[in-house]
Amino acid sequence: MNTPAPNNGKLVIKLVAVVLGMFGFGFALVPLYDVFCDVTGINGKTNPYAATYQVQDIDTSRTITVEFITRTNTGMPWEFKARSRQVQVHPGELKTVEFYVRNPTGKDIVGQAIPSVSPGTAALYLNKTECFCFNQQPLPAGEEALMPMQFYVDPQLPEDIEIFTLSYTFYDVTETASTVAMNRG
Amino acid sequence: MSTAAEHLHHDEHHDHKPSGIKRWLYTTNHKDIGTLYLWFAFIMFLIGGAMAMVIRAELFQPGLQLVDPNFFNQMTTVHGLIMVFGAVMPAFTGLANWMVPLMIGAPDMALPRMNNWSFWILPFAFLILLSSLFLEGGGPNFGWTFYAPLSTTYSNDSTALFVFSVHIMGASSIMGAINVIVTIFNMRAPGMTWMKMPLFVWTWLITAFLLIAVMPVLAGAVTMVLTDKFFGTSFFNAAGGGDPVLFQHIFWFFGHPEVYIMILPAFGIISQIVPTFSRKPLFGYASMVYATASIALLSFIVWAHHMFTTGMPVAAELFFMFATMLISVPTGVKVFNWVATMWRGAISFEIPMLFALAFIVLFTIGGFSGLMLAITPVDFQYHDTYFVVAHFHYVLVTGAVFSIMAAVYYWLPKWCGKMYDLTLAKWHFWCSLISVNVLFFPMHFVGLAGMPRRIPDYSLQFADFNKWVSIGGFAFGLSQLIFLALLIKACRKQGEAATDQVWEGAEGLEWEIPSPAPYHTFETPPVVK
Fold it and tell me: Which sequence ranges are marked TM in the entry (chain B) (predicted)?
């Protein structure tokens, strides 16, 4: 033979390393995707942690319309509504809105709200100081509740965005309530 | 290099070849394994084709006629999986096994035992996949792309079988790819420098690198589906902090290079056949090599063109649109090089050349509809319609599958030592060519008119075109039985003896050995000048 066998072994080891590396890369895409989306805000996910509000100049020259959409996932029996379908805010102004939920069933349910902003880039400029979506929300059978959400829009919000939509979807997480991280937003 | 055939100490013929089933089970001979891969791929092609017949029978008329929608969904899913992983990819691996050692003057593949293993796990993968169809609730029904949450929240328990079968298919492809790379790196005959390698070898080398880069990502994606479904993880589950769109990113990071895995070896085959029957060397050899490499590299940065409608920001849509269009540059280089090879050549129209010419024309049609799909604003209209189905069947059936048939017609006399039945071959070509266009061309029209893919029923205004599509489908399916008859005849060694060179204009090491190719070749390496 024109090449000795050990050469094959070395090359095979390198190629297997590539294979294992790419298998790992497939999983690395999960955190990379989150980081990438956090930085660019392209998938409309809002920050899952509370922002601290510092009194700042309120830009009264601009008025932003924030619309609210409420949904429940398949199999989630809650009634879920925004008290106001939309609000007008000036960038930098702190605003509180309320959402109404009712558990019409005969059993206790734990819900988790997942926010999504459209257009996605607006998510970077939406800061929530308080949100029911930061925690899982238990609601006993037959009870209702008002859940507050307090936010302000960063004055850096790009000029071309005058209106954006914040959607919340409630998921039934009763079964996994104890195991799922409690601080997702 | 000794092959394991020599380690088997029974039934030694003059050719050192054990007989019976053990020859095939234990074989480490690249020609035997190539034959196994090719027959396996052909059987899978017929099974996947039968599923396409079910789909077309259901779609012959509007309304639900023959099968229930869940079974229809299983047919579209398993048809796709079988054709991609069971037919096209193993057929190319089979051709690589047969031809790469012969074309570079090597006595066998570099890792013959692994070669045996990588073939023999494949039948089990597809046995698992096909058996899931007979379980209660049926097999996978979420499309071959297995988007979450269809494959996680809404799928049944047979998803586990789907996942394991994809794992095994992936392992098989990865082993095959490693073998090809090691063979080409380490076993080229003296004088066979990189830029003297035949283009089929070049394209397969690049394909093999794509395979080891993206098949592990697919393995990761199915593993995440498995753990999301059965072990409570939340990779793709929004309630647990995951994101279903992430699935699409991971899948298409694999999926787009995958489509080049299925077309680059085809480019190699066409680049072998066109010069032979034009009796001219390939025009622009070096540019062909660089074009292949550029297509492979670009394939990693275009995946999100499958996802324009997921709500990406405009900047990302523009990036993926232009990156995708950029691929048409190296692809154009290839098409123009083939045309320039034929220019003023002494062309003759033998069967492989007919398939190669059909490939060039019809693949280009598929390439153009791909360019249309790449345009973001119009993709919103085309997305998930039959226009997409028409596009990828033009590039995969009249592209990849036609190239495989061209390759079989080109090298079959070398494998069997006999010229195949030319009458049957001509019937096969013309029936396939006409029926495949009746089958896929009208799909463009119903797609543009808004007929969605993967739905067992459709609006009445699509009825006429669908009837034609179904008729074309049945005709194309039946045409493949001509091919089956031809192959059976060829394997029985009927027909005229082929010369060593087989084709008048053929050049390369594989045409310097006797026909049929002896069981062991190039035990002393040839010297390439």
Answer: 36-57, 77-96, 117-135, 160-187, 199-226, 246-270, 282-306, 318-339, 351-375, 387-412, 424-448, 468-488
